[in-house]
Amino acid sequence: MKKSRLTKKQKEAASILWFSDISHSDGYLVGGKNASLGEMYSVLQKKGVAIPNGFAVSASVYKEILKKGGLDVFIKKELKHLDTQDIARLQAVGKKIRGRILAQELPENAAIAICESYDLLKKKATNKHAFSVAVRSSATAEDLPEASFAGQQETYVRISGKKSLLLAVKKCMASLFTDRAISYREGRGYDHLSVALSVCVQEMVRSDKGSSGVLFTMDTESGFRGVTLV
């Protein structure tokens, strides 16, 4: 694995972490998706596997937003004794929480860092004339042995321009409280405030120049490790 330019202390203090500085051990800072992307970017690039470049907005930014104006206290109060079987109530509470997060301003230092990183990513991009990014959610509790939170938060594609980017980042953070995410955590006894959200900002690539998919190094039904499933 390529050694990061940053120390652990520097990573924990940063609002933004580039894929080149992220490894699989940084999940508590950037979530499961970003940690895996950073690991692949560092290890597989030199093996000829093309990984679109990008950066992660640290989960510390999300935590800072929740502390502003007692938003964390508000969320805890709204979700206390919530019956997720009451769909109308679940939808109302989820919408209310997401609205409060969207109404909150990003910390100034984080917003500046996101915009500066976006400019640098564009400068390095393979397609500068039609440059856009995918803005992807990366929760700090994804693909755990006993649960999978992947796919419960939102992803926004073909985002162009700083204003749209900053809004998409907040929308990703707010999506930690989609109805399905709230219900899933509630049903499995997870503390809603123990899960944080990092955001991935990654260069979009042309679909006619490549492809995407999922590869499993074992049989997903039986657990047999003698096959590879694409």
Polypeptide structure, described:
There is one protein chain. This protein is an alpha+beta fold. 43% of the residues lie in helices and 11% in strands. It contains eight helices and five strands; from the N terminus they run αβαβααααββααβ. Strands 1-2-5-3-4 form a five-stranded antiparallel sheet. α4 (71-79) runs antiparallel to α5 (87-103) and α5 (87-103) runs antiparallel to α7. The longest helix is centred in the first third of the chain and has 18 residues, at 27-44. The radius of gyration is 18 Å and the shape is globular. 31% of the residues are buried. The model has no long low-confidence stretch (mean pLDDT 90).
Radius of gyration from the alpha-carbon trace, in angstroms: 18 Å
Distance, first to last CA: 25 Å
Poorly predicted sequence stretches spanning 5 or more consecutive residues: none
Strand order across the largest sheet: 1-2-5-3-4
Helix content: 40-55%
**What percentage of the residues does DSSP assign to strands (E)?**
5-15%
Mean pLDDT across all amino acids: 90
Alpha-beta classification: alpha+beta
Order of helices and strands: HEHEHHHHEEHHE
In this structure, how is the largest beta sheet organized? 5 strands, antiparallel
Could you outline the blueprint of secondary structure elements for this entry?
Layout: H1 8-13, E1 16-18, H2 27-44, E2 54-57, H3 59-67, H4 71-79, H5 87-103, H6 108-124, E3 133-139, E4 155-159, H7 162-174, H8 179-187, E5 197-203
Antiparallel strand pairs: 1-2, 2-5, 3-4, 3-5
Helix pairs in contact: 4-5, 5-7
